[in-house]
Amino acid sequence: MELVYSLLLLYLTFVRNAIAEDRKSITFTDKCDLGKLKLKGTRDLNFYQPDQIKRIRLIKRADGYYVQFCIQVDRVELVPMTGKTIGLDVGLKEFYTDSYGEMVPNPRFLRRGEARLKRAQRLVSRKVKGGLNRRKARVILGKRHLKISRQRKDHAIKLARCVITSNDVVVYEDLKVSNMVKNHCLAKSISDASWYQFRMFLEYFGKVFGRITIAVNPAYTSQECSSCGFVVKKSLSTRTHICQCGCEMDRDHNAAINILNRGISTTGHVGTSIFEIVNA
Ligand SMILES: [Zn+2]
After folding, report:
1. Most exposed residue of 6, 67, 140, 212, measured as fewest CB within 10 angstroms of its CB?
2. What is the pTM assigned to this prediction?
3. Distance between CA atoms of 175 and 159, rounded to whole angstroms?
4. What separation in Å is there between the alpha carbon of 242 and the centre of ligand 1?
5. How far is the CA of 259 from the centre of ligand 1 (A)?
6. Percentage with pLDDT > 90 across the chain
7. Catalytic residue annotation
8. Which of these ranges, 83-87, 108-112, 198-202, has the smallest mean pLDDT?
9. Can you list the domains of the chain with their CATH numbers?
10. 9: pLDDT confidence band, cut at 50, 70 and 90?
């Protein structure tokens, strides 16, 4: 505990010593002793006070070294209420299907990028271990990985922001990360990773824009009928939900409605109660 605290203090003093007045360069004076480095990039650090910068991290990426600044800000933005609620069901084929029946497909650039990633991966495994050509192929693979993860993150941020600003309540499945890591299917694990990131940004923007985000238990959401509650067993290949009550719709649309209903039933009442008004 003490160690963490002293480290933190060290970092703080270190930050004050390190960043230049004009915030255009940074000097590392600790053990690694890198000396003065020029800062490149689009972010303007002049916008923040030095004591708002809580942490600095040096990160190595496939295309160079980066300095990451951890900045403390209270970000709250006011946007008008929409009166809309939405449930989201994640899928392999579509990025998600919502409770209105709208499907958001996986973007083309991601699919193209994933194909290129697989190709680069094959090239690495074909080269002789320990050889120069293998090292070269690995650099290419690293860059492809980096590019696609940036594209994925960008897509997740834009989509999450859009979903949050156009709804007051957003409900999605509470998928467990431990289950996700276990699967070995590439397409599945990629979609799990993007979904996890998307959920993180949903919750982040939920706080920024003052919206309600709810994660619900995903059990049986695709099996239950959204209009009568009857359990209709279906395998993964069954794409349509057909119930004895006459309800017939896309499998994921049905699941998204179930997710939304589950979320609404867990929230209970929010705001001023009509009984309080009557009794007052
Ligand atoms: Zn039914």
Report:
1. 6
2. 0.78
3. 19
4. 8
5. 16
6. 42
7. 89, 173, 252
8. 108-112
9. 2-71 (no CATH), 85-274 (3.30.420)
10. very low
